[in-house]
């Protein structure tokens, strides 16, 4: 095959040019995003029920929705949280579930419930969770005139939102902090009483005037006309002129006995940029859109907004494309430095300028061809797939160096250039293919990990497979062809090893001879290092993603007081005024208006995003926050964390390490604060680990109204009419709406401002004989502590006690003892938390690693036609892992996702070197014809020594090139470098030890474990 292709250089070159042309087209059409589009098997249902307690939200809405949804197919878990005015249900499905079908089924079931849940609530919002739901950028809109906030809200909703949605690639534009207005009618109680006009007449007149007749038509001769009764309530002036009749027959207009004006709807959320009130607009991209092209278009649109709408200030924040740009920059840096260092290393080892040029051609060609395969398998360009390409670059360089070196060696053996190219490729083809297969055998099974990790590994594994496959294609076809073109006219004898390499070779021989002299002891020492790798992994500090040097903080505040959004805003502004440093701040206060918001917000909550100039400022300010709240607001709950990036938002979980759920399945009753204190005291007998009360064990003060039913009956007042009067007496009520061109303007009858008791004193209810009575005569008010939240799962409400810092021994003790404690209180206890998920993931990971090693063994056994020799390669792996762990420890880096990926890549390169070395020894061994045992052993020893010298150059060039290409990341700054640095240290540490292993451990192991007969 190689001979056939090298004989047709023009056809091969034209074929590669054609492939590269289509690759460029593929790159232009490839979607570019921050993360791969992953169908997260979760759905969130949000319910808004204003002016209702958590108990009402749970009993009236969430309980019925949970019961209906329990029968969903592939439903893994269902959790709900009822809070005052809001409810949240989280549905988690088994991985592999068709979420489009599940979403349809959920909507059908929710629609079926519309008749059984309260009719005065909006339809529950059903939100699918997807990686593309993360906003790519946030637009801050601040009015220059604070009194024109309604106009700004209308501008954002009707104009800015639509202009942003028109940008190609934008999917959703979401707004928070907007305000709406309504038409307020506030009757004058004294005038109504003097004219003897009941307030109910105002309601009746408004409803009658706002009716429109439908299905009305007349016939006039041959023609038929549809008749539409024009709606009189087109604007506020029409409302003011509405006629009211007095008992004496006099007609007066509404504005004579009531104040009719526009007012702002009750504000449940604010957004601050700095200390200025404004709006925030989030922009979300389509799955197929290119983020690198979309974000600049958004920036251009904002520049036009600044010109077109001078009454507002605009600013863009939290640009997520910086992460993607960092990944692209890292890949570009790796390519540039990889090419430069490959040139330098080849020059140092070979002293020839043409070979680096060949490398400079084959590297980008391999990369470009990879993108056409990306298009074929449906991958996007994202952080994960780019990291896969970056991982494959090391082995791509490795393959090219090995092929070039082997062709050069064949030429030195006296073959002409044509035969040298053919035999040089054929000789290493089998071991290189085996090395790629063994790398994939280690890497690809990770795709089958459950959960989001496995889904993310899919993009990475496929991209690694693509880059390795294209590197083999280029190394076996294009590279020997280029070698022939570059060197076919060379009359001179090819320059052999450089002076620099000869010095290295001399040092290698000296060390090899010293080790070989005491080969038994040397082999034993290296074998004893293997168990250290296992103990190193077991004891090494582990984490999810690497620590990124962030200069952004997220401060979550719960004031733990029943304050409204206005008071919440005042407190936050005071806080920002006292802030000791100047920082970019964004604050979302109260209940979020975002359609895609997944949190169960409350009016007394606030979330502050702060961006600092330096990490020192960030650290100092976070400490200041802790001191500030201890001194000024000791009852408030404060959570300080790094502001999450897109990775964190996908991977983060609010699930605690160990959770005990306490349920009363018989009566669904919840424990009060006194019972909780006793329960915690009983639990403390089994563990000293600090506990944290779950949401269901949080309480708040509430005003409870007790109706005097006997008094109502005595005065002839029905309870329903009293409750109706009571509900209308507090904040007013909706009468009707003006609907025009898709706009809806509510019309409400309002009440005068004042405290609760004065409102009740001014409100009346009609009793027997039309007599009016004050509401205060029939209701008693008292403050009580009630549940702040009600949490529930499949089986109903529960209250949880949680642990974050707890040993595995304590977990085992609690799982045995807590059911006995629960029986004392008549409660059942269930357990959940990340502890159980981690145990399950660890079991699965061990199983997958066993499969990977087994695949590795069988591939090598087929390659070497031996059941023993593959063990040599497998036993080299722990030594490389040990080297990686040593360097990670010295650098102060944990064992995380990125460092683990680095170890996998390093092992792939190590395996490659070991396979080639064993394959070369086997070929030399096969050439030995002597049957004398002593002579044969000496000849095998010579074959091992000769193989070491032959393979020294490609092994060193591969390792040094890879290490030098990665070194710039160590000294780089920024989030991209922070993500890649653990990977780099893993590769550097592993290859440093791995190179030593390939040079000395493999020959020793081969000598002791293979037959020398």
Give an overview in words.
Helices cover 54% and strands 18% of the residues. By secondary structure, it is α+β, with helices and mostly antiparallel strands. The protein has 4 domains: 2-32 and 324-487 and 496-545 and 838-1009, Multidrug efflux transporter AcrB transmembrane fold (Up-down Bundle), CATH 1.20.1640.10; 36-131, Multidrug efflux transporter AcrB pore domain (Alpha-Beta Plaits, 2-Layer Sandwich); 552-644, Alpha-Beta Plaits; 658-734 and 753-828, 2-Layer Sandwich (Multidrug efflux transporter AcrB TolC docking domain, DN and DC subdomains), CATH 3.30.2090. Helix 12 packs parallel to helix 14 (451-487). The longest helix is centred in the C-terminal third of the chain and has 38 residues, at 933-970.
Task: Compose a concise summary of this entry.
Keywords: Membrane, Transmembrane, Transmembrane helix. The chain is of the alpha+beta class. The protein has 4 domains: 417 residues, Multidrug efflux transporter AcrB transmembrane domain (Multidrug efflux transporter AcrB transmembrane fold, Up-down Bundle); 96 residues, Multidrug efflux transporter AcrB pore domain (Alpha-Beta Plaits, 2-Layer Sandwich); 93 residues, 2-Layer Sandwich (Alpha-Beta Plaits), CATH 3.30.70.100; 153 residues, Multidrug efflux transporter AcrB TolC docking domain, DN and DC subdomains (2-Layer Sandwich).
